[in-house]
Amino acid sequence: MTARPAKPKRPDHGSAAAPRRARMMPAPQAEAFIRALAVANPAPETELIYSDPFTLLVAVVLSAQTTDAAVNRCTPALFAAAPTPAAMAALGAEGIGPFIRTIGLWQGKARNVAALARDLLDKHGGQVPADRVALEALPGVGRKTANVVLNVVFGQETMAVDTHIFRLGNRCGLAPGRNVREVEERLVRRCPPELLRDAHHWLILHGRYVCKARAPECWRCVARAMCNYRDKVLAPPA
Questions:
Q1: 122, 131, 162, 232: which is the annotated catalytic residue?
Q2: Separation CA 25–CA 176 (nearest Å)
Q3: Among 122, 144, 198, 232, which one carries the catalytic annotation?
Q4: 65-90 pLDDT, tens per residue?
Q5: Which of 63, 53, 74 lies closest to 120, judged by CA?
C-alpha cells in the first residue's frame, strides 16, 4: 500500500495566550512602527456601539472573551430597553440575560452588569467615575475595561491591552512581556506621548485585522519594515 504523503507542517505563529516573541525593538524602531500605523489610520475609534460613558462601560464589560461584533449585535436592543444605570438595575440579571444570550459567559455578565448599575446608583450618583480605582471596584470591571473607558470617554492616555495587543507586542517585538501588565507598561514607556491616547486603537485594530492570531498577514502590514518577527507571511496562502 502506498503511503499517503505527509501533510506540510503548519507554521506555528503562537497563540493568544502564548504568542511567539521577537527581539525587542530599539526605541526609535518602536516609534517608527507606531507612526506607520498612525499614518495609515489617522482617526481611529472603538468599534463598540455606545452613546455615553455608561453604555460604553457596559459594552466593554460584555466584550470580555467575545468579539466586538457579537456585542454590537445584542446591545442596541439592550440599550433601548435600559439606557441608564437606573433602568439597567431595574431590569436586573434576569431581565438583562435574554438580551445577551448570544455572547459568551452571558449569565455571569448579566449579573455583573446589573450589579455595576446598582453600584453606580448607590456610590456614584448614577455617573460613571473618571477614576481608575473607582472603575476597577465595579463588578466585572478590570484594568483593561477601566483603561478603555478612561481613554475613550475621558480622554486619558491609557493603554488597554487585550489578547490582540498582547500578541502583537510580543510577536513583532514592539513590547514583549510575559503578561498583559508588562506589555502595557512597556507600550506606555515606548509610545510617543502625543500618540499614546490613540495607540490603543491602532494596535488593537492592527492585531484584529492584519497581525492575526492564526497567521499574520504581513503582505498587508504598513509597519512590516519595522517588525522584528522572523517568520513573516509575505504572500496570501495559495
A1: 162
A2: 9
A3: 144
A4: 899 999 999 999 999 999 999 999 99
A5: 53
